[in-house]
Amino acid sequence: MPTDLTKLDTETLLAVSGKLRARYDDLRARGLRLDMTRGKPSSAQLDLASPLLSLPGPDDYKAADGTDCRNYGNPQGLPEARALLSGPFQIPAAQMVFGNNSSLALMHDCIVYAMLHGTCDSRSPWSKEAAASGPVAFICPVPGYDRHYHLCEEYGIELITVPMTDRGPDMDTVERLVASDPRIKGMWCVPKYSNPTGAIYDEETARRLASMRTAAPDFRLFWDNAYAVHHLTDERVEIPDMLALCERAGQPNRPFVFGSTSKITLAGSGLALFGGSPENVKWLLARMSRRTIGPDKLNQLRHVRFLRDEAGLHAHMERHRAIIGPKFDAVQEIFERELGGSGVARWTTPKGGYFVSLDVMDGCARRVIELAKEAGIAVTPAGATFPGGRDPHDRNIRIAPTFPDVAEVRQAVEGIALCALVAAVDRLLGSRHANA
Ligand code: PLP
How far apart are the first and last CA of the chain? Predict the structure, then answer.
């Protein structure tokens, strides 16, 4: 569909509409059952880590320092596991804390602890301040990750959106907001291969985040580096080291860094980690000590045995790329072929991560998803990438190509592209009719 649909006269557009409708009817008649909603690894990816299922083995339970990993204790996690993930996640081993299998759970706990106790440099618990001066607020770049929003919504935290660019959030807006409103205690950041746009925060964005003046003295960057090593090209993109930047800017306690091996090894049985200043680490360990007598160290040990070192981890990620790379290539090829030059859609070409972000014509995302559903293709609900499920332009659709196989990805993406065209042409004709 190389023609710019927005420039066609009404008669030609009507003809195009007829042809697209016929193609859509064919698509529906195929009775597809495809699911593009799940941003999770495929079974083939999980198979890559199957040796973990028999590690560390019946006689291997001692850590390098002699710790018996079967027992309670060692709340911060094994030194060798921290050393293994220190480089990839840009966290000094001494400043890393392991949770269990979910970084989202660590984010949740940090928010709850801050609400109930305050952070290490809070004047009082965030919930108390909220009772006195109005709800705590977080900044969230949009489009973004729905589970971040749900977490805030769960605890009455207001979400203030700022537009995302391909270099990170719009920093002029962020600086203005955080400087003027002491209720703004936090900000969500997915700095590398962002969910869903694939954006990568650049040096200037990171420097401004580290040094900006905030009205709240206990403001925190929730630096969710979920896709730190999840490259889709030969380029191993590096992002600025936020812990180091904040320390240099005189704001050592500003970042809470999160990461996990969910999409490195096993999504349900990986290692989740936190990184922060020594004060933040002390604060978190003190809170966690009331909650658990220690994390799952056997899982840490088996990860060390399996991945071995940083080189082993990167080699493992190359094997992931061999599986998912062709799926992302298929998305690009099909969107380019079906939607390139149509004037009614644009999409991202991520260098890593798990998603492609598709913007269809304004006011059409819901309709596209409805049409796709009627044709048997499940797509992430419209609005999911915005707080409250409300996309102000009703145009963003998150494409998650990792889980289905390549043939299914091709079919689903071809279907979605066709639905995007059908919805756009209907809308163009509708608005011309209304203006006639
Ligand atoms: N953060 C982001 C940005 C994600 O996209 C995801 C999963 O899709 C997670 C966190 C979840 O991480 P975990 O499995 O460590 O809880």
Answer: 26
Looking at the predicted structure, is the pLDDT value of residue 432 above 90? Answer: no
Given the CA of residue 103, which atom of ligand 1 is nearest to it? 15
Ligand 1 centroid, distance to 285 Cα (angstroms): 22
How many of the other CB atoms lie within 10 Å of CB of 61? 15
User: Is ligand 1 within 6 A of the CB of residue 342?
Assistant: no
What are the pLDDT digits (tens) for 105-132? Answer: 999 999 999 999 999 999 999 999 999 9
Residue 433's pLDDT is: 77
Confidence band of 435 (pLDDT split at 50, 70, 90): confident
pLDDT tens digits along 145-154: 999 999 999 9
| Ligand 1 pocket test target in 85, 258, 260 with most atoms within 8 Å of CB | 260
CA distances for 271 relative to 43, 100, 101, 265, 320, angstroms: 19, 6, 5, 9, 18
Distances, alpha carbon 365 to alpha carbons 122, 337, 345, 360, in Å = 42, 20, 10, 6
pLDDT bin (cut points 50, 70, 90) of residue 333 is very high
Centre of ligand 1 from the C-alpha of residue 264, in Å: 12
CA angle 180, 392, 371 (to 5 degrees): 155
| 334 within ligand 1 shell (Cβ under 6 A) | no
Given this model, what pLDDT does residue 52 score? Answer: 98
The pairing of strands 184-189 and 220-224 is: parallel
Atom of ligand 1 nearest to the CA of 102: 16
Distance CA 22, CA 15 (A): 11
